Amino acid sequence: MTAVTVKILRLPHGEGLPLPAARSAGAAGHDLAAAIPADHPLVIAPGARALVPTGFAIALPPGFEGQVRPRSGLAVEYGVTVLNAPGTVDADYRGEVEGTPHQPRAPRRSRSPAACASRNWFVAAVAAAAFAEADALPPTERGSGGFGSTGISE
Questions:
Q1: How many domains does the chain have?
Q2: Beta 81-82 vs 108-110: how paired, if at all?
Q3: What is the dihedral of CA 19, 24, 25, 30, to 10 degrees?
Q4: Exposed / middle / buried, residue 86 (Cβ in 10 Å: 0-12, 13-18, 19+)
Q5: Of 54, 33, 50, whose CA–CA distance to 100 is shortest?
Q6: pLDDT in tens, the chain (154 residues)
Q7: 65/116 Cα distance (integer angstroms)
Q8: Alpha-helical runs (H) found in 6-130
Q9: The CATH number of the domain where 100 resides is what?
Q10: What is the DSSP string of 104-137?
């Protein structure tokens, strides 16, 4: 695993929150807390979504992106996911990192920033792509088979 240093600017409403942190030696993602005040709990109604601040901005190195993804435990237990998963944060973005949790089932109320951390934070390398128009594409075994074409057949 390659270590990358990401500079973080803590914003005033993020004071006291933990920085993104891996919870085990082999974890790929970093837990991401929410910058919500304890006296103003976040409530996400069924079918609703919210824009949740994290209380920090970042400076990713060129050639990397940040990804906001759902936390598997909250997804399984409560159905909470990230609406645009994975949410991408570009290396040249300097605003606050935010997430868009979505609640498809019963209302979810959270007073705790850690309990509201419905996201994982990943840093991933990005390959620059150049697109070149072609008259034809090289064949593959899969061909143009789309959704479900490589999965279980009935």
A1: 1
A2: unpaired
A3: -40
A4: middle
A5: 50
A6: 678 899 999 999 999 998 888 888 888 888 888 888 878 877 777 777 778 888 999 999 999 999 888 777 777 777 777 777 788 899 999 999 988 766 666 555 554 444 444 457 788 899 888 999 999 999 988 788 777 666 655 5
A7: 23
A8: 72-78
A9: 2.70.40.10
A10: -SS-EEE--TTTT--EEEEEEE---------SS-
Domain presence at residue 148 = no
- For residue 134, tell me if it sits in a domain: no
The two structure tokens encoding residue 125: 């390398």
Q: Domain range holding 93? A: 7-11+27-125
- Which amino acid, 117? A
CA–CA distance, 90 with 67 (Å, rounded to integer): 9
